């Protein structure tokens, strides 16, 4: 057997995260409860250093290593960079919330770091094996994180539901993977694409595998009709965990769709396009309509996530480089909005009080004008009001869909985002036009205030000057 | 029909029978035991295609470790399966329809002859061929990346299990071995001077 050691340099960010996660795990064991901030600090240092490392080693040309299981390319590096920053923001917003609830434990940060590692593996996956393993690593960390508050019955129920449904989805995905492997004889996405190019797209077994792959991925994304788990988990999990689940994993899921459907099974575009159209239309419809009826803001945002997933799928199903970069832009902006929205919810909660209902936002303007302004920006951006980042994101995605001739699909998207605007603006109305039910002022630490301000302002800046990020996305996908 | 083919059909029939029994028997201990039977026969099927490492691992890991644990849990927990059966008849038509459609589709897709034994014949190996060695040589070289990720997944599973179940409660009567070792004679024995009883 002829074995040459692979090039480890491209995998450096993953190796770094893994090493640091293990280090944090060990260091945390030796700390007293009062010293827990060291764990938190180390986790933050890890994430920021990884982001820096990714910038320094940014891929100009795609490199495949680890015998075809790993790829380092510009799309992956950009997404991983965003994942690290999003996770750092998540940890920062969660810090005080966790402290007040006796959840400020090492496990939260260690599992969070392992989840980030799982996402990075998913983003860089170049074989179905690393796709599956990365997904499992992320999911397993998330299951445990949802149950991190062990004494909360709602949290445990949510974790249990997530675990059972997530395992089912993994089973679907694995079955699809085994079919694709059986039909092509390889798990390497490049080899799969080559084999399909050679043998044509008439193979029924491959289409059969593709269906299961799409079902598995849709389950993980939370697209209708595979969305059942999402509202319950968003509502049941501690808000800091909801923030984690609702943000960075969407970037990884986008990358996964790109790798599996576009890179690996790109020849079957006609087949998966139809499947994604069904998923996208149903997601936009159900997500926006059901969100109207919600009084719990976490549940409302869960349904809004489902509708955003529908929009994300629109760009991918367009099947053009323009559509992919629109989708990527959408994913990044969505993460910014989700981090901002759940961040504000976290900051409003205090010891013994969860800001969970839309009513809790009543008169927020009187209590904290700046926080109210940021929440308004986030909500208007989610609704797609012009001059916000969310508007441009929707705009480019719809443009990509129109360019391939699906005008009706774009119309459906527009109609349902108008419907969606209702419940986002209702929150804004609560904030500015209703009398406050509580009068306590809201105290936020300085660093959190700076980051959440940057988060909100970024949504305005990206809405006014989207070209920079858009260019990054399209050049990253061109490579 | 060769002897090997005969064996295959025997094992395959037992496997299907055991798998069906797993989900149809009422007693959950019986179900777990039928699952053991199913694992055993699938290990035998693997032996038939000369994948002896997989066969032995199947018996060791699934039968020896996983199922024993399963049996323990099933016997310890007094599960009431009655609520689970509620609405079974109500949802049966819908469920059965979906299942039948899926089965028909699967038969159409997979029965198209793609996976027939003609297109996937066994590769003949010499008698001294060890697939354990072959597996090992690719597992730690060409598949080292997935292998390492799998190890990280196991680590996360350990962390998750410990963080979810480890509780330090006040007042539990658990033993502390290091304290037990440090005990000296004086801590435990008190000499009491008992005056001897007078003779009557």
UniProtKB/TrEMBL annotation, chain A:
Location(s) in or outside the cell: Cell membrane; Endomembrane system; Membrane
Chief localisation class: membrane
Family per similarity comment: Belongs to the complex I subunit 2 family.
Membrane topology per record: Multi-pass membrane protein
UniProt keyword Translocase present: yes
GO molecular function list: NADH dehydrogenase (quinone) (non-electrogenic) activity; NADH dehydrogenase (ubiquinone) activity; quinone binding
Alphabetized UniProt keyword annotations: Cell membrane, Membrane, NAD, Oxidoreductase, Quinone, Translocase, Transmembrane, Transmembrane helix, Transport, Ubiquinone
Assembly description: NDH-1 is composed of 14 different subunits. Subunits NuoA, H, J, K, L, M, N constitute the membrane sector of the complex.
Source domain of life: Bacteria
HAMAP family referenced in this protein's UniProt entry, alphabetically: NDH1_NuoN_1
Reactions the enzyme catalyzes: a quinone + NADH + 5 H(+)(in) = a quinol + NAD(+) + 4 H(+)(out)
Transmembrane segments annotated in the record for this chain: 12-31, 38-58, 78-94, 106-123, 129-148, 160-184, 204-229, 241-262, 274-293, 300-321, 327-349, 370-393, 405-425, 456-478
PANTHER family the UniProt entry points to: NADH DEHYDROGENASE
One of the GO biological process terms: ATP synthesis coupled electron transport
Protein name, UniProt field: NADH-quinone oxidoreductase subunit N
InterPro entries, per the entry: NADH-Q_OxRdtase_suN/2, ND/Mrp_TM
Job of this protein: NDH-1 shuttles electrons from NADH, via FMN and iron-sulfur (Fe-S) centers, to quinones in the respiratory chain. The immediate electron acceptor for the enzyme in this species is believed to be ubiquinone. Couples the redox reaction to proton translocation (for every two electrons transferred, four hydrogen ions are translocated across the cytoplasmic membrane), and thus conserves the redox energy in a proton gradient.
Broadest EC class assigned to this enzyme: translocase
GO cellular component: endomembrane system; plasma membrane
Keyword Membrane applies: yes
Automatic annotation (TrEMBL), chain B:
Reaction equation(s) it catalyzes: a quinone + NADH + 5 H(+)(in) = a quinol + NAD(+) + 4 H(+)(out)
Pfam families: Oxidored_q3 (PF00499)
Main location: membrane
PANTHER family recorded: NADH-UBIQUINONE OXIDOREDUCTASE CHAIN 6 (PTHR33269)
GO molecular function, one term: NADH dehydrogenase (ubiquinone) activity
Enzyme class: translocase
Keyword Ribosomal protein part of the UniProt annotation: no
EC number of this enzyme: 7.1.1.-
Origin: domain of life: Bacteria
Coiled-coil residue windows: none
Free-text function comment from the UniProt entry: NDH-1 shuttles electrons from NADH, via FMN and iron-sulfur (Fe-S) centers, to quinones in the respiratory chain. Couples the redox reaction to proton translocation (for every two electrons transferred, four hydrogen ions are translocated across the cytoplasmic membrane), and thus conserves the redox energy in a proton gradient.
Record text on subunit structure and interactions: Composed of 13 different subunits. Subunits NuoA, H, J, K, L, M, N constitute the membrane sector of the complex.
Subcellular location: Cell membrane
Family, per entry: Belongs to the complex I subunit 6 family.
Transmembrane segments: 6-24, 31-49, 55-79, 91-115, 143-166
Membrane topology designation: Multi-pass membrane protein
Cellular-component GO terms for this entry: plasma membrane
Protein name: NADH-quinone oxidoreductase subunit J
Keywords assigned by UniProt, alphabetized: Cell membrane, Membrane, NAD, Quinone, Transmembrane, Transmembrane helix
């Amino acid at each position: 057997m002829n074995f040459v050691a692979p090039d480890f340099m491209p995998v450096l960010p993953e190796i770094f995260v893994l090493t640091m996660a293990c280090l944090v795990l060990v260091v945390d064991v030796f700390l007293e409860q009062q010293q827990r901030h060291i764990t938190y600090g180390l986790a933050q240092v890890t994430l920021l250093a990884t982001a820096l490392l990714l910038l320094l080693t940014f891929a100009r040309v795609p490199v495949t290593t680890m015998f075809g299981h790993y790829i380092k390319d510009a799309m992956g590096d950009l997404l991983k960079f965003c994942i690290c920053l999003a996770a750092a923001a998540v940890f920062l917003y969660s810090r005080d919330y966790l402290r007040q609830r006796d959840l400020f434990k090492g496990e939260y940060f260690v599992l969070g770091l392992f989840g980030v590692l799982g996402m990075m593996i998913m983003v860089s996956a170049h074989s179905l094996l690393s796709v599956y393993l990365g997904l499992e690593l992320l999911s397993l960390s998330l299951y445990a994180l949802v149950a991190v508050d062990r004494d909360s019955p709602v949290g445990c129920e949510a974790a249990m539901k997530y675990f059972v449904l997530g395992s089912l989805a993994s089973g679907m995905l694995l079955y699809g993977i085994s079919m694709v492997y059986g039909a092509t004889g390889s798990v390497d996405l490049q080899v799969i694409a080559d084999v399909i190019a050679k043998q044509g797209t008439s193979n029924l077994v491959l289409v059969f595998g593709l269906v299961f792959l799409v079902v598995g991925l849709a389950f993980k994304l939370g697209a209708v009709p595979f969305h059942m788990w999402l509202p319950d988990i968003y509502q049941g999990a501690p808000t800091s965990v909801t923030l984690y689940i609702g943000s960075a994993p969407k970037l990884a899921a986008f990358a996964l769709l790109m790798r599996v459907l576009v890179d690996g099974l790109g020849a079957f575009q006609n087949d998966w396009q139809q499947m994604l159209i069904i998923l996208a239309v149903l997601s936009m419809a159900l997500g926006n309509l059901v969100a109207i009826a919600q009084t719990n803001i976490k549940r409302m945002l869960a349904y809004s996530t489902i509708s955003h997933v529908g929009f994300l799928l629109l760009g991918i199903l367009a099947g053009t480089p323009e559509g992919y970069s629109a989708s990527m832009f959408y994913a990044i902006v969505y993460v910014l909005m989700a981090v901002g929205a759940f961040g504000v919810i976290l900051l409003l909660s205090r010891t013994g009080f969860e800001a969970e209902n839309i009513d809790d936002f009543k008169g927020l303007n009187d209590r904290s004008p700046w926080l109210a302004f940021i929440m308004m920006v986030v909500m208007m951006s989610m609704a797609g009001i012009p001059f916000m980042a969310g508007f441009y994101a929707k705009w480019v995605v719809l443009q990509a869909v129109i360019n391939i001739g699906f005008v009706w699909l774009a119309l459906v998207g527009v109609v349902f985002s108008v419907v969606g605007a209702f419940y986002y603006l209702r929150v804004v109305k609560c904030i500015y036009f209703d009398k406050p039910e509580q009068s306590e002022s809201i105290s936020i630490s300085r660093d959190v205030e700076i980051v959440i301000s940057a988060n909100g302002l970024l949504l305005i800046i990206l809405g006014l000057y989207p070209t920079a990020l858009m260019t990054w996305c399209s050049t990253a996908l061109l490579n | 029909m060769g002897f090997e083919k005969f064996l295959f059909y025997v094992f395959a029939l037992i496997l299907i029978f055991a798998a069906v029994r797993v989900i149809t028997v009422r007693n959950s201990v019986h179900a777990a035991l039928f699952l053991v039977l199913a694992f055993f026969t699938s290990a035998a099927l693997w032996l038939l295609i000369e994948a002896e490492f997989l066969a032995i691992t199947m018996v060791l890991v699934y039968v020896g470790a996983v199922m024993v644990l399963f049996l323990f849990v099933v016997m310890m927990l007094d599960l009431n399966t009655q609520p689970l059966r509620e609405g079974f008849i109500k949802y049966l038509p819908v469920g059965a329809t979906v299942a039948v459609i899926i089965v028909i589709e699967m038969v159409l897709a997979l029965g198209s002859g793609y996976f027939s034994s003609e297109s996937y014949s066994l590769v003949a190996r010499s008698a001294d061929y060890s697939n354990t060695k072959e597996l090992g040589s690719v597992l730690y070289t060409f598949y080292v990346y997935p292998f390492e990720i799998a190890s990280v997944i196991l680590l996360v599973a350990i962390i998750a299990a410990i963080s979810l179940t480890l509780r330090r409660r006040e007042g539990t009567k658990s033993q502390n071995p290091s304290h037990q070792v440090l005990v000296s004679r004086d801590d435990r024995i008190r000499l009491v001077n008992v005056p001897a009883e007078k003779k009557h």
